[in-house]
Amino acid sequence: MNLLKKCCSCFRKKTDGVPPTSTSHQLSDPTTGFKGQPRLPTFAVPKRYDIQLKPDLAACKFEGIVSIVVDIVAETRFIVLNAAAQLHINSDSVHFSDPNSNKVFEKPKVGKVEADEILVLEFSETLPKGMGVLTIGFEGVLNDKMKGFYISTYDHNGEKKNMAVTQFEPAYARQCFPCWDEPSFKAKFNITLLDVPSELVTLSNMPVDEEELNGNLKTVYYQESPVMSTYLVAVVIGLFDYVEDYTPDGIKVRVYSQVGKANQGKFALHVALQTLGFYKDYFQMPYSLPKLDMVAIPDFAAGAMENYGLVTYREKDLLFDDHHSAAANKQRVATVVAHELAPQWFGNLVTMEWWTDLWLKEGFATWMSYMAKDKLFPEWKIWTQFFDHESSEGLRLDGLAESHPIEVEVNHASEINEIYDTISYKKGASIIQMLKGYVGGPHFQNSLATYIKRHAWSNARTNDLWAVLKEECNEPTIDKIMNSWTKQEGYPVLSVKMKNQTLEIKQSRFLYAGYRDRRQWIIPITCCCDDYDSLISLLMEKKSETYDIKDLLSNITDPARSWIKLNVEQIGFFRVKYDDGLAAKLRYAIEHKCLSVTDRLGILDDSFALCMALEMSLTSLLTFMAAYREELEHTVLSNLIKVI
């Protein structure tokens, strides 16, 4: 086995996994053995980046130099990191300095595995263990692909202008500078922008530390960041107006927009200030940076991106015009702002170790945005919208045979974008809501606060969250319960019938295709009878179970018309199929407005899905729909129209 192949067999091990080195052994191709590897090796770990970028907005190109403080944790001649194929490396500039001996290791063999975006540096001598500084010069193109370091265009006084923007999530920082472009390699960042036209606004994650003017050009130095992942690094350069305000803690918050549109940022500014305060209280930890900038970008691929301290948005998702924008736009802005600020804690401060756990930030960001909106705008009845926009959509797509688990194995950076989907966002948010309902709101909140404190400035996996919940909630089976929801695709449909004073419930996987498999879930179930004061909670652990509910039925005054509703307020991520007798009583409850808006909506959603899956006849569906003939709630009516 040659040296590099032996190295690759130990990729993800620490000091005991770094292969032996030989100063006499040389390879003609330094990339041999590194091709097709899913993750970077860990025998060299970045601690701090000093990045100097010199962008040329007119020529749409940039050049730069990066000096990276690297901890060599085992003797090796190789440093392996990420660099995209389109990033040109100046091989003559590459060197490694040992501060202890003042020795400089120069002119390594430089190789690229372009398909895997890996840069391999092979030095002629063994690098000493401990801290050293790796320096690399590079050049690149400001592309028009809305990823990496790219150009966005806008009009200013009738003239077309360029702005430079970064979008590094999930793995595009490597298009801008050589780096360890994986979320587990957290480091500090010192960013400098060189020779930028002095009239332009320049933004990065941290506040400006110093600015030097040289004629009509300027060099801008930013304060050092706390440790963070490369995908959160950000730079924006262009002409902007802004509105600003401060939180009670003194955090400066600004909303940047194109010149002349500053007033359209006032609503987003208000939402951001209130949301930062809410998240501080909920997570029991203050926002961790000295400023927060939010910028409206004309050309932006995603809805928004939660870069640490510098959040970027599509214009329509940040700006709101009181005179011309619709009310739906106002809710959209509030949703997106609240969504992007949640990862400042649950994503940026505590970061997933690898993209398999993407849902830890995106599912929680989706769910937390509703928590914030409910606090700021209670008149919006936001939890009905949560079921309509998140849970219902998640149920629809997860009912397809082609779905995937929330925790899906990501084997290569090229696969990451495939999991930015409804399952990670909407199903992830929905099972969080279900979990909160199971353990209780206060226990859940305290658990999240403990999780953040325990893993702040570091990385975590899904199991780390379950471990905290087990401790804080005294629920030793939380991981077993939740693994049934995150590690397998799909969800159950519960078939329910009443016999004497017992409920008989069977679970099977819901699929629109109609066939079933052997999968099962551990299901937290809520149930009420005749009113919402009689709520009980059940935990279904088998394929079929029987529950004695005589206590629940003891207060019934009219047995002929009493109704039973499972999955109260649609808090669980499953569907319910009632037998004919229970269904008839629910129709009565719907007709007489005994059920909440969310429950009326949920029954309609389940009924339509069951009909589509051939689990309910069209006649039964139409009979159910007749119970809504006097419905007045917009959300329910709009879904009735969709069914029709």
TrEMBL record:
Residues 45-232 form the Aminopeptidase N-like N-terminal domain. One of its GO terms (molecular function) is zinc ion binding. The record marks 425 as: Transition state stabilizer. Zn(2+) binds at residues 339, 362. It is a peripheral membrane protein. Residues 267-485 form the Peptidase M1 membrane alanine aminopeptidase domain. Binds 1 zinc ion per subunit. Keywords: Aminopeptidase, Endoplasmic reticulum, Hydrolase, Metal-binding, Metalloprotease, Microsome, Protease, Zinc. Gene3D superfamilies: 1.10.3480.20, 2.60.40.1910, Neutral Protease Domain 2, tricorn interacting facor f3 domain. GO terms for biological process: peptide catabolic process; proteolysis. Residues 563-642 form the ERAP1-like C-terminal domain. It is found in: Microsome membrane. The active site is at 340 (proton acceptor). Belongs to the peptidase M1 family. This is Alpha-aminoacylpeptide hydrolase.
